[in-house]
Amino acid sequence: xxxxxxxxxxxxxxxxxLDALDAAVERRRExxxxxxxxxxxxxxxxxxxxxxxxxxxxxxxxxxxxxxxNREVAQRLDTAMASIRSVxxxxx
Length: 92
Known about the structure:
- The chain is built from 1 helix and no strands.
- It is mainly α.
- The longest helix has 89 residues, at 3-91.
C-alpha cells in the first residue's frame, strides 16, 4: 500500500468514527430531552396531586360539617315529632 492510500484509509476511518460520535451525541441529546420532559411531567403531576389533596381535605371537612348538621336536624325533628305526638295524645 502506498502512503497516500494509507492516509486515505485513515481519513475514512476518522470520518466514520466522527459520524458515529455525532450519532451518539444526538442520541444522548434526545435522551436528555426525553428525561427533561418526563421530569416536567412528574413535577406537574406532583402539583396536581397537591391540589387534589387540598381539595379532598376541604371536601372532607365540608362533608363532616354536613353530617353533623344532618344529625342535629334529625335530632330536632325527633324532638318536634315527640312534642307533636304528646300534644295529640293529650288532646285525645
